[in-house]
Amino acid sequence: MYLRIKEVKLGYFRWARSVKSSGFDPATDSLAYDYLCNILPANFIGSGAWTSDHVADALALARNAEAVSWQMLTFRSQNLTTSANISAGKNLVTMEQFDLVVVGAGYYGLGAAKQYHVTHPNDSLAVFDVNASVGGVWSNERVYPCLRSNNLLGTYEYPDFPMTTKRFGVELGNYIPGEVMHEYLETYAREFGIDKHLRLSTKVVSAEHKVEGGWLLETQSAKDERKTPTKVFARRLIIATGMLSEPFMPHILGQEEYDRPLFHSKDFQKYRDTISTAKRVTVFGGTKSGWDAVYAYAINGVKVDWIIRPTGHGPVWMSPSFVTPFKVWIEKLVNIRWLHWFAPCIWGQDSGYHGIKSFWHGTAIGRLITNAFWGILAQDVINIMHFDTHPELKKLKPTASAMHTGTAFGIFNYATDFYEPIRNGTVKIHEKDLSHLSEGKVYLDDEDGTILESDAFVAVTGWKSFSPLKFLPEGIDRKIGLPHVLNASDEGCLPDEDLAAQNALVDRADKEIQERFPSLKTPMKFNPNYKRLTETKAFSMNSSDVSPRTPLMLYHFMVPGTAEFLRTKDLAFTGYSTNFSNGTCAHIQGLWISAFFDGKLARDPSSAVASESESKSGSGKAMSLSEVHWQTILHNRFGKWRYPKDTGSKSPDFIFEAVPFMDMMMADLGLLVHRKKGWFKEMTEPYGPEDYATINEEFATRFV
């Protein structure tokens, strides 16, 4: 905040200097000198319009916590206090400053903080999270009754911190209870010293970018919003709030009269007492969280009315952990290299085997085989799930195409028979839209005017696709690549102003995707009666919250691909690409981001804007800015065709494309992509966390 010449009232500094006692010179004060060396560029003193005296005065004022915006400084009398303190040489309160701030203490946030911390042990670090405990979706605040991981033990862990049975008590072949997931992440933070840097129960409200680099953050107590917000300066910023942090919760007609607990599935833990107090509940929504809520109530004897609207996405795809006639573990199945060849993937350039992939997707006979693969896989799951064995179970049969489904895909991970409460009538499934609510009642939008008694209403209505954190200055979200509403003023803007608005590049990307993968030209099978939730009778929302937004537009799904941020290298996102290998991806992304900040990537997007001297001293291959723009648009546009009706159309969300994504990050880092011993194992053995356990050490050897 103190580097911008145009924000500084030089007249004020000269006046302040004139009233100082002759015995105090902050330019020679050791505290000031150290502070100056750490914060300002080495060549800053005496350069441009500032003299060393100007810098010294700025430094003294920067110690004043109230001087957060120099545009506010005037010659008014209240500044005499500041002047007097400068004159007396007092060590005024300093705004907290960190080399790195991570926003979000979930799986990805902790992974990024740890990777930065171990590669920059002397840098200052803070990890902010709105919850009072670490874990994100696995925090104490969100671990609802009966919650278990979709992964069996062994595939949901950081590569360098295995979740062992001895330490965490989960046996091989078992799902991981939510409480154990929280314990694991808490232990991870403690093991690597991240616990000392946590700032819990704190919400980061806004982040203002400074032209010379760095971020001014406004934070607010999550426990007491009456407290005055505080300012923090971050030299570098990682956003790790992910895609499951901000509930999409439209207003429901009549909810004011309902007078019963009505909550989003995110808050199930907060309302867990309804399991014992309610006699009959309503669960609205057919995604995995809906299945979980239904199960938690039903096994405790609570009657459940489960509403899955006929105008929606339909029931989510659910599968047991072992599929195909060979009973292959599904988390491993999707990470076998030869199987991912059947999935179209636009970022597979570093994975190799281009000839066989061209055959599968570029020839008519190859596409017949790949279509057969997806058909067999889908039918196998449907057969295993026994949807056709009972009239009520048929209502849970997915209607969307399996090939076009991302991580909305759920695992059938329940401890007892999920179907029994449905068969015995404890759970009643209603394929109806909602009409409205009244006191203790739910009205369906059907010809019969069905009325349901209801002691609690669980809204499984999804998540907002945009960050709850406000980025400043206004409009900077376009440069960053965050989802936003396009308007007329975006037409004709330059790529560095808004990549999502580059219609010519978007059209070119669409054309290339369809030429390389002709099967994606065929529209996916989808509900012909589909309506957005807020277009149905019961739901409404502020138009700004439901207006169509651009997809996420980040280079390799982690950093802005525009010149301003490639120069400052002070912003990154982690956890905005979801898959079945989140533990491994969190680990690799953390190292990738740390290397990006340091300019140590072997394939470095920031080289596109580097000076000649920086390019010569860089560790990797130089890129052009147009190349960075193109890759950013091409990769982020892929989801529109691969997952057109799923969350993958808004942000990277994929299953079979995870191994190529990890390949791409490894190539960026200059590390070995094919990590198995021998060609046969490379094609047939699944990739897991253990294959990436030593990447930190491997990366370090590049600079020895």
UniProtKB/TrEMBL annotation:
Keywords: FAD, Flavoprotein, Oxidoreductase
Entry keyword annotation includes Flavoprotein: yes
A matching Pfam family: FMO-like
Gene3D superfamilies, A to Z: FAD/NAD(P)-binding domain (3.50.50.60)
InterPro entries the record matches: FAD/NAD-bd_sf, Flavin_mOase-like, FMO-like
Single GO MF descriptor: NADP binding
Chain coiled-coil ranges: none
Domain of life: Eukaryota
Record-stated family: Belongs to the FMO family.
Name of the protein: Uncharacterized protein
Species this chain originates from: Fusarium venenatum
